[in-house]
Amino acid sequence: MKRKLRLRLTGSLLAMTACATLHAPPSFADARDAQTLLKQTCQGCHTPEAGDALSRISHQRKTPEGWLMSIARMQTMHGLQISDDDRRTLVKYLADTQGLAPSETEGVRYALERRLNTVEHFDEQTSQMCGRCHSGARVALQRRPAEEWERLVNFHLGQWPSLEYQALSRDRDWFDLARKDMVPLLAKRYPLDNPAWKAWQQARPQAEAMAGDWSFSGHLPGKGELSGVMSVASAGADQFKVTVKGQYADGSPFNGEGSAILYSGYEWRGNVTVDGVVMRQVLAAKGDELQGRMFEAEHDERGLDFVAARHGSQRLLAVQPGYLKTGGESEVTLVGTGLAGTPSFGKGVHVLQVLEQSPERIRVRLKAAADAKPGVREVSVGTLKGASLAVYNRIAEVKVVPAFSVARIGEGGGSTPKVQGRFDAEAWGKGADGKAYRIGVVPAQWKVEAFDERAKDDEDVKFAGTMQADAGVFTPGDAGPNPQRKMSTNNAGNLKVIAAVEDGGKALTGEGHLIVTVQRWNNPPIP
């Protein structure tokens, strides 16, 4: 029993340190080279095959996070002894030589970017057979031949023998379905051999091309929009020094320094300390663009959408804010690279004054005519296009984003931090054709209510946590038994999230669903 407990604790610690390992630059002075590591550390269990291949290892392709999880599993389940530096070296080598092409990660990058409130939409069979224990994205972010998919099925049943007795297993012949239905399906859908990977290996650019200045824009729920410049300097061996200088729309700074590594020719993983807080960068490089998410290392729910364009290219990244009411005036900022000329916002929207202009930033004062046509129009600066402005005469609907969210109790004397719920109020309009269109994120007043009668009887609003009324940030209650609750239960709850928006003297509300639940002890890089 003590040994099992130690294994569980070790597994939890490895999971917590895994992302730090992935994002931290290797110390090549102390680490052995990858080929030596494979021979001395891996070959004891993974037998050599033709063409310098190793059993199991050579028949899989994964993201950096996927390879990190595989090595961590060797540590927790098989007692592998390996230093952090050596582990980083192996992850880098395997992700570079047996990674995924950019096209192979499309549609499932939310898992890498720690967007944990994403509601997945896989086919029913995949959701029930695979997605009930972990995300479907974890499956979609690896490639194997049929033989390896079958070995993975066998591993699952051998490692977790109670699997067949769980919900969505005990009502069917799970093992038979997994072998005969899921293995062929996964081998066809996610094959080891894919022309996309071979083409990417031949075409991927040199990592040094990432060096230079990048204009970026972003949005942080509970705080707002931001923009700035990220400076990247090559440190050799696909590593970089990173400096970020920016500000939020309210003028508060967003400045920091750190480092980054490029895996597979496009998978950017960085650690940047912003105003004393370590933030991860999980970005995908595509030509002159970087796109993904930045989030706090200790609180991945506190994250911002991030898109950047390299200086020297021409790109209109964002219009901030991206909406304007008919008959009204507003100050708007355009963010990008190579911006030159007077911006155009379409018929009925006039530039009253250019307040600031540079190749990376144009700030203007706009006025929309009272009869300007409502809807989303393309914004241009000279020949550049790519961003939009929503013109509206009234808000037709308010949506809470995310519509469904999970927060987690924590602290209260324990070591596991609380996981907040963070929300935006998204305004929607209705065009002349009656079709709905997105206006953008607007200021709101926030509150929570009991989701149903049970939540009301249990006083979930009182115990589950508090909502910051002007920001849409929900902080859950402390972990552990609460003597003030029925049966001294914990501070979990089932809540409605209400956003109230004023528009022309009219109050509109949107509603979301928030589950406040217990801590998550196993928090792997890919959920």
From TrEMBL:
Would the keyword Transcription regulation be found if you checked this record's keyword annotation?
A: no
Organism's domain of life? Answer: Bacteria
Segment forming the signal sequence? 1-24
Q: Provide this UniProt record's keywords sorted from A to Z.
A: Signal
Q: Does the keyword Glycosyltransferase apply?
A: no
PROSITE patterns, alphabetically? PROKAR_LIPOPROTEIN
A Gene Ontology molecular function term of the record? electron transfer activity
| The Quinohemoprotein amine dehydrogenase alpha subunit domain, residue ranges | 208-310, 314-393, 398-526
InterPro entries hit by this protein: Cyt_c-like_dom_sf, H-AmDH_asu_dom2_sf, Ig-like_fold, Ig_E-set, QH-AmDH_asu, QH-AmDH_asu_dom2, QH-AmDH_asu_dom_III, QH-AmDH_asu_dom_IV
Q: Where is the Quinohemoprotein amine dehydrogenase alpha subunit haem binding domain?
A: 34-197
Q: Which Pfam families match?
A: Dehyd-heme_bind, Qn_am_d_aII, Qn_am_d_aIII, Qn_am_d_aIV
- Protein known as: Quinohemoprotein amine dehydrogenase subunit alpha
